[in-house]
Sequence to fold (207 residues):
Amino acid sequence: PPEGIHCVHILTCGNSGPRKGSPHQPTGPLARGKILSAPVVPFPGPGLRDRSLLVLAGSRRGVRVGAAAVEGWDFLGRVVSTGPFHCRVARPGDQGLALRVLVSRPGPSGRVRRIFRGRLLPPSGRKLPFRWAPDRAGGGLAAGDLVWTAPDGLDLPKGLFVGTVARVSRIGGKGPQCVVLRAPPGTAGLPGRVGIFRFGRLEGRER
Fold:
């Protein structure tokens, strides 16, 4: 294939199951999907290249704004715009991407000690960390916490792995927590395979 183009997969909720061997295999509706193939290319803009993916599959194949893009069962980003034959995926760190998340805190034995909800707000600058906004019953984050997607609209399912909290700080010792996430292995750079989730009936004709 031409340089910079990779084979990818678009996954829509439907009939087939999760990819075998994935370290994070969800169950229920998330584990049932239909896989479509599509190429992804570097986004044609230096300001967006590190924070966006241009996937050559769009509304004609059932992709719509809000859908989650994944690598295996790791979260890559969300679709923020579509055309008939392409879509743009904003990745974590994009200034327009806020995420509802579930956070699990493993104990010394590896068992989960606590689960709480909140939002990861986009950084105010390209290299700054996320801001953490806990729900009413939430709490502060700590290094080692595991972050997963929470249900948000029709197309962001629960249980996609976002990353591990690497560092937490507060500017001036007060205010909201600033969070640095360590992304799942294999999700940095231009991915070789991605999926895009869509609940409900697939619209349009598969190609």
